[in-house]
Specification:
Keywords: Cell membrane, G-protein coupled receptor, Membrane, Receptor, Transducer, Transmembrane, Transmembrane helix. The protein has about 400 residues and is mostly helical. It contains eleven helices and two strands; from the N terminus they run H-H-H-H-H-H-H-H-E-E-H-H-H. The chain has a two-stranded parallel ribbon with strand order 1-2.
């Protein structure tokens, strides 16, 4: 099993070199020259991956921890985004551990005789697969949340309650993990309860195709929902532009601002979905195309080990870049996240300078924190004022008609 992202490139190379792989008996052993090339490549490539994953862990940790500095209870959309950031944080941590245990230790350090290593490798792969599905289901949940908010705004608070949201988020985390644990334990003589945790089914096409379908179906639903939302918003925009020359009022301005906010939220989420498709999608495509038995490309035969390692490295680099870039998307595109992150960093600076005993720097930190609070409060007052003005105009319009 591998140590990067759902392929068999890393620790399977070590197993093939030792002649103990789960591959079929026709598999050829890796020659010493290839093994040395792999070892030298891993020696510099894995530390570089650790650097990117460390950035991803720090960035997503800041997003998750910033929730403590929210002035009000987070909206359902913000709560789902924070949970998605926590999922990315968990994925980055598991990938870093997998690279160490499944790739660096057996291939570079050549310490592959530990009895616990096969079961730990299998466990990290189970967690990695469940983390991928957790992120996938999060995006689908965010899509339906946007659909309800745009298509049924008056019933939104009735449908999306705090209790339902908490239960839904818990299911997004628990169900994929339980599903993978059961999947890797149900086969007799294979999986978690087998001797040395042997798992030959993992390297065959049926399992990989099932994982691919389980990944692609929610993603197709997510894209379909956003396609429907965009068609609806563009129709609203066309109707709004049609009345641009006929009316210039506060109600029109408020409607335009609300429409712009909806477009911004949708484009932000589609940006996250796009990076998800580009990373996990390519990873799953490689996962289902290359294996030891039944796939289009047979590992070590129709696709050489060197070419497989190169493709795998590119795919995993995209995945790690996605995990590192998502915090920037949250901070740059979501106002509440940006404000709370600034507030958190200001609080940390104030605490740090206070411990150092500085007499002037805490004042600067307090001023920054105060300005952030004033900006956030002003933004909330503007939104409240726009909403009250819109409600007043609607009541006046209704009164004039009656």
């Amino acid at each position: 099993m591998d140590g990067t992202a759902m392929n068999i490139t890393s620790s399977s190379i070590t197993k093939l070199a030792m002649g103990t792989s789960n591959a079929s008996s026709s598999s050829k052993l890796v020659d010493m020259e290839t093994m040395m090339w792999i070892r030298s490549t891993y020696a510099w490539m894995i530390p570089c991956m650790w650097v990117v994953l460390t950035i991803a862990i720090i960035g997503n940790s800041c997003i998750v921890l910033s929730a403590r500095w929210l002035r009000h209870s987070p909206s359902p959309n913000l709560r789902l985004c924070l949970s998605l950031a926590a999922s990315d944080l968990w994925s980055a941590f598991v990938m870093m551990a997998g690279l160490l245990i499944n790739s660096y230790i057996p291939t570079v350090l050549q310490l592959y005789k530990a009895e616990w290593q096969p079961c730990f490798s299998l466990l990290t792969e189970i967690i990695r697969l469940s983390a991928m599905l957790t992120s996938d289901f999060h995006l689908l949940a965010i899509a339906f949340n946007h659909l309800i908010g745009i298509m049924a705004p008056l019933k939104y608070k009735v449908i999306v309650t705090t209790r339902r949201l908490r239960i839904g988020v818990a299911c997004l985390w628990v169900v994929p993990l339980v599903l993978m644990m059961v999947w890797f334990s149900a086969r007799k003589g294979e999986g978690l309860f087998a001797k040395n945790c042997s798992h030959p089914f993992y390297f065959r096409l049926p399992f990989r195709l099932a994982v691919f379908i389980l990944f692609i179906v929610p993603l197709i639903f997510t894209l379909s929902v956003y396609a429907f939302i965009l068609v609806h918003l563009f129709r609203q925009k066309a109707l709004s532009d049609l009345g641009n020359t006929l009316r210039r009022s506060i109600n029109y301005s408020s409607g335009q601002n609300a429409l712009k906010r909806k477009f911004r939220v949708v484009w932000t989420t589609l940006l996250i979905v796009g990076t998800f498709m580009l990373s996990w999608g390519l990873c799953l495509l490689y996962f289902v195309s290359v294996c030891i038995d039944g796939c289009v490309y047979i590992y070590g035969q129709s696709l050489s080990i060197r070419n497989s390692l190169i493709i795998s490295s590119v795919v995993n680099a995209l995945l790690m870049a996605k995990l590192a870039c998502n915090p920037l998307i949250y901070a740059m595109r979501i106002n509440h996240v940006r404000v709370t992150v600034k507030r958190m960093l200001s609080s940390w600076r104030m605490t740090l300078f206070h411990r150092k005993g500085s007499g002037t720097r805490p004042t600067s930190a307090i001023a920054t924190c105060t300005n952030n609070h004033r900006s956030s409060h002003a933004f909330e007052l503007d939104a409240y004022s726009e909403r009250r003005q819109s409600e007043t105009l609607v009541r006046l319009h209704s009164s004039s008609q009656t």
